[in-house]
Amino acid sequence: MDHWLKASAADLGRGIGSGEIDPVALTETYLSAIASHPFADRIYARVTADRAMAEAEAASARAKAGQRLSDLDGVPISWKDLFDSAGVATEAGSALLKGRTPEVDAPVLRNATALGLVCLGKTHMSELAFSGLGLNPVTATPPCVNDHDAVSGGSSSGAATSVAFDLASCGIGSDTGGSVRIPSAWNDLVGLKTTAGRIGLKGVVDLCAKFDTIGPLCRSVEDAALMLAMLEGGKAADLTGATLKGKRFAVLQTVVLEDTREVPMKAFDDAVAKLAEAGAEIVKIDAPEVADAMAMAGPLYTAEAYGRWRDVIESNPDLMFDRVLERFRGGKDVGAADYVAAWQKLERLRAVWYERVAGFDAVLCPTAPILPPKVDRLMQDDAYFVTENLLALQNTRVGNLMGNCGVTLPTGVASCGILLNGLPGQEERLLRVAAAAEAALALG
Q: How far apart, in whole angstroms, are the C-alpha atoms of residue 248 and residue 251?
């Protein structure tokens, strides 16, 4: 039964549907794997074994009665430790929220539970979700699956590693500046960043509500499509017949190729070549509006984050990781007028961007321009932490600033992803394109 641990969520769902897999045995297999794994305490903040078994038993009874609630009814997944879960601490990776225990599930967790997903537990994350690296000395730092001495990417670090280390079929995370896509790329997973506002944030510990999004970190594009439907109670994108023939991809030249290191750059170039071989037209584009938007990222993010968390932080700042505290305090001196003006300018830049990329099926770039940095150096070198964190977020943040949805795919090179950006609200269309790209990359 250990082979179940490496299966996609979709394949597990099909196995349950055919009667080959019992949800109780499946959940017991995952819980046993978690209990015996050497990194489990660095990946899971809390394991909800009693809840998982109760949900699995209900799913098993439905499967036997032919009354499954969805294609993924009975499939076990993990949840980032910022989604409220009834009676279980939700602390968002911070000692500031220690003991915070909600009385009800977040609606997004409630939706997934109502469709039969089994909750294995809550995963570790960057403190208050404010880092792209996943380094968290306050609670735990999950290791990268490709280098156990390196960080796994943040802020959905445990969400990614729960899947990469075969301790969940899928992890649900959040993405404000890259927090689904970076850990997905660094752990060779598929990650879906949804459009801001598509999935409600009620019951989710927020960082920057204007940028915060929810999305899955998983093994395949099919899983991402199914999970999106589970999270919002909708219908999954139809991926059948997806092809790259006749598709047009823009390869963004502005900002995202700056400081990109040799291994991620070559992995990206080789992946683009495979997409072209599969029939896609590749067009290089410059977009000055992206550079203009990136120049405003600091004030936009830090002002909202500090405004949201100021009173909590300043009541006990010594409880925080100093690097994260410094990032929050970067918004302390941003004036209200400057913040409003920046948002007005960003909306104008987005309009220019949408017009520029409207004729393309996706805009491509390397998911991250760097490989996962070593934990020890990040802890010992303040300047290195700052530069690597900003670089980790460089490419993914473009999608948040411009309001895009996005999918990162593994390139076949360890910890190197290719990011496909789509227009707002076009997740289903983008997922079809990503499914075809996934197939092309696997064949190349």
A: 10
**Contact of 175 with 400, CB cutoff 8 Å:** yes
How far apart CA 282 and CA 300 sit, in angstroms, is: 32
Do 188 and 145 form a contact (C-beta atoms < 8 A)?
Answer: yes
Per residue in 95-104, pLDDT (tens digit) is 999 999 999 9
Task: HSE, CB side, 13 Å, CA atoms: give it for residue 264.
Answer: 27
What distance in Å separates the CA atoms of residue 126 and residue 296, rounded to the nearest whole number?
A: 23
End-to-end CA distance of the chain: 31
Q: Which two tokens stand for residue 168?
A: 């969940």
Average pLDDT of the residues in 271-290:
98
Write the DSSP symbol of residue 142. P
pTM higher than 0.85: yes
The 10s digit of each residue's pLDDT in 393-418 is: 999 999 999 999 999 999 999 999 99
Query: How far apart (Å, rounded) are the C-alpha atoms in residues 392 and 373?
Result: 10
Give residue 203's identity as a one-letter amino acid code. G
Q: What are 95's two structure tokens?
A: 């000692």
Residue 443's pLDDT band (cuts 50, 70, 90): confident
Q: Please state the length of the chain.
A: 444
